[in-house]
Hints:
Elements: H1 5-33, H2 50-56, H3 60-73, H4 77-85, H5 92-113, H6 124-159, H7 163-167
Amino acid sequence: MRQGSGSQAVIRFRAVGVSLLLAHLLLVGWLTLRPLDVPWMTASNLQPFAGIRADLSLGPVEAARRIGKGLLLLAPLGVLLPVAGGRLFVSPWASLARTVAAGALISLAIELAQTGVPGQVVDVDSLLLNTTGVALAHLLVVPIGRARLRRRNQRRVRVLPHPRDEAAQGSTPTIPRVGIAP
């Protein structure tokens, strides 16, 4: 196996991750920042958990639909951000903290951008649900995926020849240094 093929696979993996991340962000932007033609609008919700309590009062099916929508909107970022980063050997807690912070900032940016969009209202519970969705997706997928990729990478490394085998062939010839002319 060639030595550079592993790094080429990582580059392709990251490129796919970045492409999917951009596609997802474009979809989220289109869903959340397009003007809506509605006959009336609710007031902005700046009190944490007030919207979730209101959703729960609508019954279990409607509450699950509304809360699930908030959790799932940015949940793919929990997986796509680490994939776009392309790190295999990283602290799980640091990765979770970076991913959740980035998800929260993206959700906050969306909420702030919605202030200027007709028919869209700011809801602090959306920020909380979106961030929770990012964290849950990260916790459920990324540690398992990284462990599998590390195991696969270790199997590849075992196939490569040992440095001792290369020493039997002799040392690499070197060219003596040539002085610089005055």
